[in-house]
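Chapter review. Work through the record for Benzoylformate decarboxylase before attempting the end-of-chapter questions.
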Amino acid sequence: MTKRPGRVAIFEQFAADGIKHMFGNPGTVEQGLLDAMGQTDMSYVLALQESVAVAMADGYARASQQPGLVQLHTGVGLGNAVGMLYQAKRGGSPLVVIAGDAGVRYDAMDAQMAVDLVAMAEPVTKYATRVTDPESVLRVLRRAVKIAMTPPRGPVFVALPADVLDAVTDEPALPTVVPSTRVLPEPALVARMASVLSGGKRPLVLMGDGVATSGAQRELATVAQLLGARVYGVNSSEVNIDAADPSYAGNVGHMFGADSARIVGDADRVLIVGTYVFPEVFPTLSNPFSRDARIVHIDLDAYEIAKNHPVEIGVVADPKLTLAALAVELGHQGGAAAAPAARPVARATAPSGPPSVLELFTERLAQQAPNDLILFDEALTAGEPLGRHLPAREPGRFFQTRGGSLGIGIPGALGAKLARPDQPVIAFTGDGGSMYTIQALWTAARYDIDAKFVICNNGRYRLLDHNIDQYWREQGIEPHERPGAFDLTKPAIGFTQLAASLGVPGRRVSRLREVDGAVAEMLSHRGPFLIDLVIE
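Structure tokens for Benzoylformate decarboxylase:
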């Protein structure tokens, strides 16, 4: 291999791994790296703030099922990106994040911008390291890609000092080998799992995004049918089961453990697949399952199995292969004759009376949108109309925020569109969430990324309203005026004007009679377009 600087060699490694986009925000200590990139075919997607870059890479990774590459500017850039990296870690997004620093030779100086990058990154990544030898740059990058892409997937971080990248290396660029995790339990264990799960009067399935990562949606639905079980999403932000499947009953709580406990407390047979249990901010400290519940947990993340609550059988295995084998065994044991779920599944019904602006908008969008529409949903408190009119049915066409942080809606949709350029992509976000990463609209305009954005504008952090209402009930506090910090109307944000200043046209919709024209204009417009949908 010909000797060349590490700053050149790394792009040979990225090319060997088929990585075509780098999402980032530049800085001085990365200038040599970015200069070298100009001689390659890699596309640099410029973000005006680092959290936007991470969120775009997150959307790209989720839609493409390939690693998303992010470039950050040393400690200040990493600091700006921490919130989005936390979301990526909680959601299992395979990101490869690189950041420069001035150089190994300056470590003892404690100079401007000096910081322990690895220590900063470790809490919000699956793996973090710093390269200090020019002959190991590509080796470490391959290790990073491998770790990011090996389930349980997640973001990884590599610090690349400028003097290490300036040094020459003859290290070869080779495609990264991602080990296969398509492992299947031994037949005796599959038979035991089937025996434990069979015969229940109140069977329950709890699922998460490990199902989507494995491509196990069909197998999960088959097992649920054989068990006669209700299916609830837990850490579920993608299509893990068709929302129209009769066994699907919705999601457990994401904020208060008591909500999840009410759902799982009467189950006597529980199958947990591809998720941790449970994802609430305020979880129940006691075991929410009944004493007689027999529980089987299947996941490729051994850490999450029986982490908080005991299970009878824990299996570190591929969900798709394991569920397929379990379905066969259940059939042999008479699972096809299982009784249906004992408790009827509650389905969302359309509200009575005249439709709201949001209700009519989602209805008209469902009627007019192409069949291959991809939705990126961050508007959680406005999600019921979306679920009614645009339910998450096909894998790869629905992505939702996860990890508890705001701001992924707009940039996540941009990343998804870059990954799937031939499919229409629409993001739904809130007025509060959109302002975390509104700079992403500039990136959409700069690269003419043909994604659409709907801001559900209620003038508040509405989720906080719901949460404090519950807090008051739990604490026995009389309801009163909510904190002024939840209000976003003083002054009101002019989203269409703000979008226009960033190069994206838009339209404000506040009346029912404006809905039809707005939906038609959004869908027919070529290039990025924003709807300011006033819903209150």
